[in-house]
From TrEMBL:
Cofactor note: Binds 1 FMN per subunit.
InterPro entries recorded: Aldolase_TIM, DHO_dehydrogenase, Dihydroorotate_DH_1_2, Dihydroorotate_DH_2, Dihydroorotate_DH_cat, Dihydroorotate_DH_CS
Membrane topology: Peripheral membrane protein
Chain segments annotated as transmembrane: none
Pfam families per record: DHO_dh (PF01180)
The enzyme's E.C. designation: 1.3.5.2
Oligomeric form and interacting partners: Monomer.
UniProt-recorded name of the protein: Dihydroorotate dehydrogenase (quinone)
Catalytic activity: (S)-dihydroorotate + a quinone = orotate + a quinol
SUPFAM superfamilies: FMN-linked oxidoreductases (SSF51395)
The encoding gene: pyrD
GO function term, MF aspect, one: dihydroorotate dehydrogenase (quinone) activity
Length: 343
């Protein structure tokens, strides 16, 4: 029904407007009695064979929702009904910001892809905290893990970036299960410069030190770009070892436009979807092999089928995340991946 009817209908309208319309619709739908229970019955699988213990957390299944979809923690309760084992909110910044001028989200239907130049549009970390305080009992009962993806405000110069990440880290600490440090979005000017070894090591060490001030330290992961060279990926392995953070998310969107056919291919921004499938898997395999599986990896980028997910797991990913594949394939994709992972 989704791919034959709903998707063609939704894809006939502006993608950002459709995103907000879909959020409102899901919110309203789940307020109808028995709808949430019906969705969970249809999409959620509870099988011990799918459970995954990683960096001190117990994941009900290894399929998560990547950051960028529920930026402001508006819909994580409702989205848990579609079978995700974990949901990552954000990217959130200390202060609210509008992001880049519209139009800033583009479908590439011929390539099964998206280009976005959103620019960390969000309502600020305090608004996200207020919403996270209202986790439903069902969410806790299902054991859904919530991640917090954090970034810096556009107006904050890189030399002060650590302060922005610290503000978000402290504010969210009691309300998320793990953190993701996002220094790899191509849509905030100069943000990717923070991936360089010296500033990134300083940032992660500062967060690690702050983490020890809490009774229950939270896992800290780093999200990296797919456009890093092999030399830069070796640096990432060294940084993870030196800072002793808990893992890596590979990968964010790409600035590459290789092999695209859609007329929107010239739009500026980060590319996600099927064109990223091979490169993100390459990065996962490189990190896993060169580090000798020294740290957990969450694989994301171009997962549009169960086979795509299995390929990333075989390459070295411990968990996987969906974003563009979820939009193109619908919620049944989560169920298909989990089914394929069963013995």
């Amino acid at each position: 029904m989704y791919k034959s009817f709903l998707r063609p209908l939704l894809f006939s309208f502006d993608p950002e407007k459709v995103h907000h319309f879909t959020f409102r619709s899901i919110k309203i739908l789940n307020k109808i009695p028995f709808v949430s229970a019906s969705l969970r019955s249809q999409f959620c699988r509870d099988n011990e064979a799918l459970h995954k213990d990683l960096f001190g957390l117990k994941f009900k299944n290894p399929v998560g929702l990547a950051a960028g979809f529920d930026k402001d923690a508006k819909l994580f309760n409702e989205l848990s009904n579609y079978g995700f084992g974990f949901i990552e909110i954000g990217t959130v910044t200390p202060k609210p910001q509008d992001g880049n001028p519209k139009k800033r989200l583009f479908r590439l239907k011929k390539d099964s892809a998206l280009i976005n130049r959103m620019g960390f549009n969000n309502g600020g970390v305090e608004l996200a905290v207020e919403r996270l305080k209202h986790k439903s009992k069902n969410l806790k009962k299902q054991g859904i893990i919530i991640g917090g993806n954090i970034g810096k405000n556009k107006v904050t110069p890189n030399e002060n970036a650590v302060e922005d990440y610290m503000i978000c880290f402290k504010a969210l600490h009691n309300y998320v299960d793990y953190f993701v440090v996002n220094v790899s979005s191509p849509n905030t000017p100069n943000l990717r410069a923070l991936q360089d070894k010296e500033p990134l090591t300083a940032l992660l060490n500062t967060l690690k030190t702050e983490n020890t001030n809490f009774d229950t330290p939270k896992p800290i992961l780093l999200k990296i770009a797919p456009d890093l060279t092999d030399e830069q990926l070796i640096d990432i392995i060294d940084i993870v070892s030196d800072t002793n953070i808990d893992g890596v998310i590979a990968t964010n969107t790409t600035i590459s436009r290789e092999g695209l056919e859609d007329e929107n291919r010239t739009e500026v921004g980060g590319l996600s979807g099927k064109p990223l499938t091979h490169r993100s898997t390459e990065v996962i395999r490189f990190l896993s092999k060169k580090s000798n599986k020294a740290f957990p990896i969450i694989g994301v980028g171009g997962i549009h089928s169960a086979e795509d997910a299995l390929e990333k797991i075989e390459a070295g990913a411990d968990l996987v995340q969906l974003y563009t594949g979820f939009i193109y394939e619908g919620p049944k994709l989560i169920k298909r991946i989990n089914k394929a992972l069963l013995p």
